[in-house]
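DUF5007 domain-containing protein
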Amino acid sequence: MKKYIYVMMALVSSVIIWAGCKKISVGFLSDAVFYVGSPFQVEKGKNGFITSELKGDGSTVPLTIKLLQIKKKGTEQRADEMYQEQKVYVYKTAFDPEVHTTLELLNAIRELKSKPLFEFLPSGQFLFTSGTSVIPTGAEYTFDIEVSNESGAKTFKNIGELDFVESQPYSINRNSATYLQDGGAVFEPLPPVEITVTRTAVSGTNVVVKYVDEDGVPFNPKAGELIVRGDRPTLDSYAKFNPVIKTDTEMSLNFEVIPFPYKTIPGYGSFDIFYRIPSNYVKVSNPKATYPANTKFNINPAIGFQIKQEGNYVVVVKIKGVKRI
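Structure:
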């Protein structure tokens, strides 16, 4: 019996010694961490565009994620253009259109600085600035990262892809027009106006607006060929920081802040802009036959647009069915 007890004690001691010598694993780092949504369609020039975070596939947290390199797709060549800096406005506090109502107040909360095109966040996300407007449309990149935790570190090559696409830098929200007999009360419809928006530069915050007839002849805002319609908003209504400059053929404005217009005017949810062209400057090409010959009509275009990315723009509003006289 004593011999049996001694044998059992020896076995238990052996197990304890073996267990004490065995290395205890610390944490877990998966070989299959991944990004949801890759390849990422990066909208170039869009400030604040952000990719999804890295998924750890059950890895022990916290994870430390380090960007090793962005490369031209299909190569091991470093994409130097992704590491350049561009000048962008950096805001010290959030912009509030109800508070920062003058250019002086606006400039007090922002500063033009040279910044990288992106920030690589601790979550493994890319946060892009508007500076990406300089990246060619269609450019494709892959990137390598290092992921580490308490169990060690691993390198993941070509784990994600960044494809730069041209995003729509503006929207057109309204494009109608009517004609009205002088002294009358019935607004007759004209064909939808044709609005053409051209981005002439990727930097800047300037917009030029031209109203033209069906033949492309511009109306003269400086001479009163475009007038206010009562209390309805015009381009001036959205000019918070600089005045609208009017010439013989166009109106221009440095709007300073993206998007423009920054917010709608109560009651006008499409960033509406209204003007009236007096009858002594225009004629309707084919008015209703019920109107006597030589009836005079004023023209009432109603448009709405919003610029969503920095740049200089030309907006041409072609009013169909009318001719300037």
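Residues 1-8, 14-19 have pLDDT under 50 and may be disordered.
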